[in-house]
Amino acid sequence: MPVPSPCVQICTMDEASGLCRGCARTLAEIAAWGTLDDDARRAVLARVAQRRAAQGEGGSAGGARMPPSAQKIRNA
Fold it and tell me: Fewest CB within a 10 Å sphere: which of 1, 4, 19, 33?
């Protein structure tokens, strides 16, 4: 099953963290997403999960929340 994008259509970058407020990815991760294979996409999602955990569950990485599709992958 393909790994879905974590994009939640809230595409603004937080200047302090350098992360998207919607999906908690860096600009480089967002730009590369379309060319990544599923293993690399899972690695990006793991980094996103680590960022969120470092800021507290339910907290924000620049205001971002993990979309349900990414939560399913994270919890798998």
Answer: 1
d(CA 49, CA 66): 8
Average pLDDT over all residues of the chain: 82
As to burial, measured by CB atoms within 10 angstroms (0-12 exposed, 13-18 middle, 19+ buried), residue 64 is buried
How far apart, in whole angstroms, are the C-alpha atoms of residue 59 and residue 63?
Answer: 7
**pTM exceeds 0.90:** no
3-state secondary structure of 74: helix
Q: DSSP secondary structure string, 4-53?
A: PP---S---B-TTT-BBTTT--BHHHHHHGGG--HHHHHHHHHHHHHHHH
Q: Which residues contact 33 (CB under 8 A, 6 or more apart)?
A: 5, 25, 41, 44
